[in-house]
Each structure stands twice: as C-alpha cells, then as structure tokens.
Hints:
Helices cover about 45% and strands about 15% of the residues. It contains 14 helices and 16 strands. It has helices at about 40-55, 70-80, 85-100, 120-130, 210-220, 235-250, 280-285, 290-300, 310-330, 340-360, 365-385, 390-405, 420-435, 435-450; strands at about 5, 10-15, 20-25, 60-65, 135, 140-145, 185-190, 195-200, 200-205, 225-230, 255-260, 265, 270, 305, 450-455, 460-465.
Amino acid sequence: MLKFQNTLTGQLEEFRPMREGEVRMYNCGPTVWDFAHIGNFRTSIFVDILRRYLIFKGYKVTHVTNITDVDDRIIQMAGQEGVSLDEYTAPYLEAFWQDFDALGCQRPEIAPRATQHIAEMEQIVKALTERGCAYESEGSYYFRITSFPEYGKLSKINFAGNIAGASERVDTDKYDKEDARDFVLWKAQKFADEPAWPTALGHGRPGWHIECSAMSMKYLGETFDIHCGGVDLIFPHHENEIAQSEGATGKPFVNYWLHGEHLKINGESMSKSKGNYYTFRDLKRQGFTPAAIRYALFSAPYRKQINFTIDGLRGHEKTVAGLQDFRARLEEARTEPGSNPSMRAAAARALEEFTNGLDDDLNTSVALAAVHNLSREVNTALDNHGLRADDQRDLLALIARFDSVLNIFGQPRREMLDAEIQALIDERQDARHRRDFARGDEIRGELAARGIILEDTRDGVRWKRR
Length: 466
Ligand code: AMP
Ligand code: ZN
C-alpha cells in the first residue's frame, strides 16, 4: 500500500487519489534567472521518482511543473542587460531542460510559464477581492490574512504574533498593507520602464505565489492530489498558495503535500546566494556521469538530508558503474535452458523489497538496497554457472522495471553489428601497422568484452561471436 508523509496533516497516510487510477500532481519549478544548481535538481529528481513510481504502480499521471519567468531578480537582471524578459530568460530555460533531460528526468505533461498566464492570475485576484479576501492599495492587491482563519495550517506556524515573512520571498518593494502579514498578489507598475501587463487590475505584474495557484488549478482543477516542492517553500509560498486558492474557490486545494529536504554542503543548504553550489555542468566538465549524479541525488529518501561531497560522488560513480557492469554481464551470459528456483526466489524477494521501500513514502535507500542485494546474488550465481536462460530473461525484465523508476542503468547493450565489428578490426590493423600495439590490444579487449573473439590467421583477421 502506497503511503506518503503528508506535510498538511503531519501523518504518514495511505495514498488515495481523487479519481480511481489517476493522479494529478504539481511541483513548483525553476525560476529561470540563472543556471539551476544540483540542489534544485535534487528536488526535480525526487519529483521524477515520485511520478515514475506512480506510473510503475499503474496510475495515469498528469503532472504540471511551472516555470517562473518573471520575478524581481529577473526584472533587475534583464534591466541591467537592456534586454526583454523573454530574451533574458530564454537561455536559462533552455539550459534547465537540457540538464533536466540529461539527468534522466521525465518531462511533465504540462510546463506552463507564468508570463503566459497573467489572465488566469487576474481572475483569481478578482475572485478574491469579490469575496473580501483581497484588497487594493495604491494600485497593488494584497491577500487579507484575517479573512482566512486557517492560515498557517500547512506550516503549523502560530500567527498570533507578528510575522513579516509572509509577504514575498524577495519583498524589496514598499507597499501599503492593512496588516504586516498580508502578502502581495499583484504589484502595480511604479516606473515606466518596469515590465507590466495591462489588466482590469491596472498595469502591473503578478506576485510570485499567485502564479502557482493560477497554473496548478488551470490544468489540474480546483482540487487535486499532490503538490510538491523543497522544504523552503512550505512557508510562505505554499501557505500562501493554499490561502489564495481556497480563498477564491471555497474548496480544498490539495490533498497531499510532499516536501523534499535540501541538498547540503558542509551542513548548509546549497544555494546561489551562499555561493556554495555546483551546477550539473560543473560536474559534467569534471568527468562525472549524469547517472552517478542522479544516483547521488536520490541515494537517501527525499525527506532526509544529503550532504554533497565530491568524494561521495566518486563513490557513487563506482557504484553505478558496478550496477551497469552487472547488467551487461547478465545480458552477455551464455546460459542453458530452464530455470533455477533459487534465482526465481531472489527475483521475487527483490521486487517485494523494492516496492515495500518505495511504498513507504518513497524510501529510495531501501529500493536501492533491494537492487544491490539482487546484483550480489546473481553475480554469485553467474560465477557458479547457476543461472538458466529463463532466469536470465526474467531478471533482465525485472531490472528494466526497476530502472523505469530509478533510471540509472543506461541503455541496454545491444549486439554489435557486423559493420561496427569490422570497423574496429580495421582500426586495430591500422594501429598495428603504426606499431601502436597498446591501441591494438585495447581494441581486442573492447571486442572481447562485447563477446567478439579475434583470430589472427595468414589470410587476415577472422572474428566470431562467443
Ligand atoms: P527556485 O528556482 O529557487 O524557485 O527553486 C526551484 C526548486 O528547487 C524549489 O522546489 C526549491 O525548493 C528547490 N531547492 C532550492 N534549493 C535547494 C537545495 N539546496 N536542495 C534541494 N532543493 C532546493
Ligand atoms: Zn509554487
């Protein structure tokens, strides 16, 4: 039974989607003001494991990730460079998807951009104003916290005191509010050169929180199943999303809230502002593989801290290579027909451990342990010729199923084509003529590893498949 730790209730709960067999989920996506760091991608990968596991369990998934392509930082940077918002964000948006794909994440069904949903945000602000949950002040609109008594139900913060943080993540603007806790929904244009959209609310731009309410409800409905993000977003961002959405519709907004712990360095959250970050590109340039980086970022369950180190990543690199070698060995093994009952039992046990782990609030450590145990047992069986053809086929299919969630094994090796083999043999002959015997031996080794045996004869080189 699939269970999630729900931030809203503080409980580990059985997951029951609103519609049988279908899941509608949302996560707060990147603010495309700069390259994302691997901390941001830890959250993307946690959400990716969630969506892949829901699909593994047979659910039809509709997943939305928003793109924040307008905020005060973006406006400031675009202004400094003298370009439009779109021109400024385009390269970072493209880089985000490149890294996201390279890290083996599945793209969400819908990835809406804030700047293309201004009308939807305007509608929510209007509805909130009509219901007394929002008010206008000097052309800007604010959410009236006193109109929503449940404010604080997600973050469990007691709002009896004075909380100034509720306003905005980067609230550098000084606007007039009724109450210090009220947060901005719509920001009036103050200067002629400030980006602004003409709406019934006046010329202005949206606040950050309203984006997510507008884009999630547009594509997933007024109430949907799962909302995720990093822990930093619980307050104020998600608390404010709930207030805006429930204030406007009078219905529950989201049933399950899942929050991922941050990626740390030396015990501190990885972040741009602290300067203690790595991008995916940095690590790739240093020779690390995407599969090992992905592995490092989900090696602990999403609600547990991960402390990132380069030494740790080197270890993960070896671990992932070991798993990939294991699968290649299994693919290439020559087996006798039939099946070995102990191998069938090992496969059944691994599947059970894997699903029990992920059913338990996506415990990826347990799921990985199941995969490692299986690889150890099968490697031993291969050493002892204890594996049969049916086991080989079933185990490869099982690994493919595990990898539909984990996505670390890479492409299965396929048989080399005759032309590819011949090209390598020609290259080896060339190398030998140049007296580059090291390269010649390397090619022989490469071919041997792929099951191709070379025979040097008087009539030239012959080859055969093992
Ligand atoms: P941002 O681009 O800052 O809006 O963040 C995008 C996502 O990355 C959000 O879900 C954040 O919670 C998440 N995030 C930011 N820093 C970290 C970190 N160090 N570790 C994990 N997730 C993070
Ligand atoms: Zn959001």
